[in-house]
Every structure is written in structure tokens, then in C-alpha cells.
Amino acid sequence: MSSLVKEGVLGIVLGYRKGLNRQYVSQVYIKVLTQIENVHSLIGRKVKVSDSYGNIYLGRVVKVHGSGKNGVVIAVFSRNLPGQLIGFEVAIL
Length: 93
Description:
Layout: E1 9-18, E2 23-32, E3 46-50, E4 56-64, E5 72-77, E6 89-92
Antiparallel strand pairs: 1-2, 1-6, 2-5, 3-4, 3-6, 4-5
């Protein structure tokens, strides 16, 4: 387990949410790695990501991507995540 998560759920940033003509850089897909039976229970929880420079990015889970069987949620950040954080570990508190 990561040192980022003490109590909570571990996940990985998959990428930005995209439309046909636009990329929503404030919204990212997060794959939940911790085994939980209902991904819908994560809606409203805080999300914390830290980079190698010590910057901390805070957001929240707003909805589930798809039906929830794939374990992917959408999180919104007030400070947009930089592209270098795609693939980094996330703590869902």
C-alpha cells in the first residue's frame, strides 16, 4: 500500500475527461484499486493527489463513470491537475 493512504481508498489517475471537441482538464477519471462492493458510495468524498515536488491537489468525487462495474469514478479539482500526474496514486478519503 502507499504511504499516501492511511484510511481510505486507493486509486490511480487514468486521464482527463474528454468530449468530441473538448478536453475537461478540471475533471479526471480515477480507477479505484481497493476492493469495495459499491463504487457509488464514494460520491462526495475528498480526493488527494500529491506530486514529486510536494504540491497537493484536492478535489472531490462527483459521479461514477458508467454503471460502476469497471470501478472508475470522475473527480473534479479546483486547481487543474497537470498532465504529469496521470498514472499517479490517489487517496480517496
